[in-house]
Amino acid sequence: MGAAPAGVEWIAVDWGTTNLRAWAMQGEQVLAAAAEPLGMGGLAKNQFEPALLKTVGGWLTEGSVTPVVACGMVGARQGWIEAPYVSVPSPPHSADAFCRAATSDTRVAVTIVHGMSQADPADVMRGEETQIAGLLALRPGFSGLACLPGTHTKWAVVADGAVQSFRTFMTGELYGLAVAQSVLRHSVAGPDGYDDAAFDEAVAEIAADPAGLAARLFSTRASGLLRGMAAPAARSRISGLLVGLEVAAMQAAWSNAPVVLIGASAVSASYRRALTLLGAPQTEVLEADLCSLAGLAAARKLIG
Amino acid sequence: MGAAPAGVEWIAVDWGTTNLRAWAMQGEQVLAAAAEPLGMGGLAKNQFEPALLKTVGGWLTEGSVTPVVACGMVGARQGWIEAPYVSVPSPPHSADAFCRAATSDTRVAVTIVHGMSQADPADVMRGEETQIAGLLALRPGFSGLACLPGTHTKWAVVADGAVQSFRTFMTGELYGLAVAQSVLRHSVAGPDGYDDAAFDEAVAEIAADPAGLAARLFSTRASGLLRGMAAPAARSRISGLLVGLEVAAMQAAWSNAPVVLIGASAVSASYRRALTLLGAPQTEVLEADLCSLAGLAAARKLIG
User: Fold this and answer.
1) SS3 B188
2) Minimal C-alpha gap between B186 and chain A (Å)
3) Dihedral angle at the C-alpha atoms of B97, B77, A195, B166, nearest 10 degrees?
4) Are B242 and A218 a contacting pair at CB < 8 A?
5) What is the ipTM score, two decimals?
6) Model-level pTM?
């Protein structure tokens, strides 16, 4: 963690299933950052406070209380405490649905941000609402689609400062299972790398025949057996089929609205490529951490 | 294995990735059956003959040679010997592409049936060609679609005694990964059983929005979190989404042709249900083993 930074006013925490990431903040300025593999998935109820203190303890001051604002799966039923889901349509943050997590250490005051839900079609998010709050802080008045690529990619319709509706695609998880666990693992065993032409071809194919997904995935394996398709081409083809299918499903939404992609650069680049190929008029990429931090800062202001 | 049956003329073998199944035959009559978990996937080259003898040794007669006809993954590159792929269009069996596997035991003469391939879209099959040969033996002159549900479901266009084209969907494998390995495993944890209404609803949903697959799969999880969807309904919904998507992809083929389903009864029943829901005019189910045996008998006649 290094030397304790001076002037820490509050601590921003993005606490997901796998990792705990924290930033020592002065206003909206980052003074220091820390990360530990202490995600919600591996912690019992009584392990959350020790995990937090292990990560941010060096930033605390004896005799004063530092506010901590956390978002993500830390607020799930299996998390530290269960923060409610706020139903859409709603602004991404509602301070009256934030939760306080009790601590025995009096140097911190921990607030956990709620998630969001949608009744029909049934859907849920935790953590992405804070990135959307960050988007609205960075682009005041934004109206359009926020796409947050990941294991479970979210597409949110944002207008009038609120999330109007959203849709989650488990595309990233399907990709991971396909390349690691299915017969397609033989097709991607080989040299690293990607093949843009194979990605583009797959996006066009699946947009023209969305129902054919399970056949077009299998044909990747058959192309390996019959024509020796290389691993980079196979990897990009599988990605193109799955990302292309998802982007095609959202066509009605993005054809008339700007899209902001919020996510890790490589995966956002794939989504942006597919959007452009299928004719999306306007796409922009925002870095995920930038949005998370802006959203956590917005949450802190709401707490007052 | 019990007492050796009298009058064994030949032995039929269906040798897949996981299992070796064999039948002692007199003409087209089954005298005895045996099965061992000695599939191609677990055997080195020099273990195929011992595996066969372990399974059928009791049916052999000292001093005479019993023909053995085997189909399936035993003929793959990783199998006993590699049998070629015959390109479509072609009759399901071409005797000149059958292969002899050498044995040190002189009581058997082993023939391995070839597979089939298609250049564009790239596709392969091994074992299903023999079930299609069985279909043609059981329904001479059949013209229409043969659907062989399984881990990798095949749809074959059959006309003029030949396989004209075919398409493989890895639907069964995707279903297995989704319910065992993905976030959806939480949704199917609970009471056994299926829910026909949930299946039917999912088939209709996905046929109307095929590109939405990854979102509609995830909504199963969200329905569990928000509305307590029961495990049987979740299981049937996931099945209905995946099977419905596949059946929708084949609509142009089945809307004008009879469909014969060849497969295990439960999975064939799901496909038949989806076909009927989406408007297929004519479907029939044939038992898979019946077709395999009829196909292996047809192969034996070709060998002469």
Assistant:
1) coil
2) 13
3) 40
4) no
5) 0.92
6) 0.93
